[in-house]
Amino acid sequence: MSTSDIILQQLANGLILGSFYALVALGYTMVYGIIKLLNFAHGDLYMVGGFVGFLVLSLVSGLMGSSWAGILCSMVFSMLAVGLLGVIIQRIAYVPMLQAPRLSILITALAVSMVLSNGVMAITDGEYLAFNTDLGYEGLDLGNVFISYTQLVLVVSAALLMIILYLFVHKTLYGKAMRAIAIDQDACRLMGINVNRIIALTFFIGSSLAAAAGVMAGVYYGSLHFFMGFVIGLKAFTAAVIGGIGSIPGAMLGGLVLGLLEAFGTQIPFVGSEWKDVFSFGLLILLLIFKPTGLLGKTEIERM
Amino acid sequence: MAGSSPLTSVSDWLRPQQNRMIVLMGLAGVAMLIPLVANNYVLEVLTNAWFYAILCLGLNIVVGYAGLLDLGYAAFFAVGAYTTGILTSKFGVNFWLTIPVAVSCSMLAGLIIGGPTLRLRSDYLAIVTLGFGEIVRIIARNLEITGGASGLIGIDRPSIFGLELSRGIHFYYVFLLLAILACFISYRLQNSRLGRAWQYVREDEDAAEAMGIGRVAVKLYAYVIGAMFGGVAGCFFAAKMTAISPETFTFSQSVLILLGVVLGGMGKIPGVIIGAFALVLFPEVFRGLGSMRMLIFGIVMLVIMLYRPEGIWPQKQREV
Amino acid sequence: MALLEVANLGLSFSGLQVIQKLSFEVEQGTIASLIGPNGAGKTSVFNCLTGFYRPDSGRIDFNGHSIIRRKPHKITRAGMARTFQNLRLFKSMTVLENVKSGMHCRTSTGALGAVLQTGSQRREEALITSVSEECLAFVGLLDRKDRRADTLPYGDQRRVEWARALATKPKLLLLDEPAAGLNFDEKKELITLILRIRDELGITILLIEHDMGLVMKVSEMITVIDYGAKIAEGTAEDVQNNPKVIEAYLGSDDGEEFL
Description:
The structure holds three protein chains of three kinds. By secondary structure, chain A is mainly alpha-helical.
């Protein structure tokens, strides 16, 4: 394979990987932006989304088949269901913790994550679950480079979701409220904005995007595992930090950058192996130490 | 007296230092006599409980005293265990000599990890410590000197004054004594200038800085001392098990130790010990649950945070 | 040489110039005030002095040494202590424990000393306790030393803040709106306290305050700022009759306060 072939192939791989990371990172960044909480359980919502999608697909495959129609249906349902789950978690676990010391809400988020991942583990007995679809393996055959139609559809769908989100945040009143609350919550309350409802909406959107990514991942990789939330959680967090935590375009950019880094990294001997995770963790740690505001983030000044 | 119950009169009697020491001595005495009446299985479980007590007390200094959420505490435990493991099984070094080396390595790990990261926000710190925990585990799993994925075997059993420590009863006393030492050190630290500094930084970092307390240095002290506890526990763990594998030092392990601290009551020594015991005894008592263990722990942690965040052990009563 | 010399201090947030070319001095053994209408940048000045904000330009010299952009705890160790506008006590700790925090930077026992309880550790603990109790006695709160800080009434909590700052044995004490929320009698006590701090303890004081009566009564030197720049400086009489000052206050809602 020539260098340009490798580049093209890894570009394609990187784009789809980046799409997953971006979708999950968006949820992280939106929740962090609005209530300054790193939701540990967010990655697990991605995992649950994949499983719910799988369940729905097996239910509707009789009617709609296991191809794109069925997948779309299961993805939409999963997004709604997991979005709702996100709101429920926020109401039950996080709202009571808002006045408590920071440590408490972080531990609570950790506990929620444990419940979700171990709950699914108990249900699946820790086994991998095969996500069977009728998609076939056709794609664009460009000599040494192969880009499957599945890849294309998934990347386009992810991009569509992100465009819809961007329009929502910048063109609707709800989106404006979200951005305002991220700047000054108390001022918003004084302005009569129902802050609690908007925060719930943020959780809903973030969770449903993660669920969409989960279904897509299930389709792409063909399998689901209860532990996939843990890994993607850390990776998505890294992506959010790369782009600048709290920034929505930052999460999209960061996801893309991380996806491309990982795809091209597979070609580098040391990085693309068992040491892959050490590399990504190391990158995250270095970022947080030296450039915590990432590429597009703003430096926070704390007023005393 | 109006409104007095047996419980209030007990807690009143417990107020003076002297009476509390009597109770503690009594409990310690009971703990020392247990091997005489317990069978091997019970002894093993209790030894494990004392072992977790040491780990939980160590993490308690980081989380409970200094208020730092450390999600990678198992890394220090790993460094201690592997240092002792490698030195004894591959280089034939006497176990007792490996202890200072292992502890130094753990403390060094604490410095390396904590130095650049303790000035980060608590959320970021949690993720960073998680990352470091994973890094240590992956390194242990992939290096030849650490035995790779199958770990180290053939770690020597230590001898003290000619007696080889090999039986369950020996290790029971080893871990019990270590736990008592850990309690003592924790107690002294808690009620000292450093202990107060941790509290100030935990309550209001910026106000503490304004009072002349260097918050990063103070946090680093907690982190490194916590690492020390983990390292010591790791050494003796390696000696007891004679074989260690990277799967002992996972994120789940770190979370479990955290659960012990949270369950009993962060920052409270008796609470932390109770938490450690609960961690170990609960799965033994409810054997049938098996794979649901972590799920139940997660639910317990959630319930505690929502309804009794101060943990099982009651909060110290202060004059109002 | 003045105890505190500030020269051409500049600070901006996201393009907004909060402090511009501010220069003033505080002489040793005096009581100085920094006043100005709301939003003039007074607390920002304090935050720059104490290391919580990093100024973009200028010079801050304390006791002959430059302290600009140093970490807050180092500045306190050098002898500049502060109180906060919105009380920042360690709420769940006792009054005495709160005040003991001030002595942390004047002592040095570490972990080893704590565990072994050496002779020097015990002596240091006794010193910490005695100095803290002295500070509490100075502000009149010794009898409440074992109460939880957040159970005290507001006026007493303020006094705990002052005792805490005094325990750091400062050369310069920065008081951020010490009269906020105090009633008339408490303000009279505050004036006495401020004068006692200067006269009995020999500590220099710089205060930010809105209560003009208090400012005029205690200050030997007043610096007036508006929109981050100095508009007047001088004694109480100078400032009271300065037309620029009157205009700055009349132009804002603080007008009533001033007249």
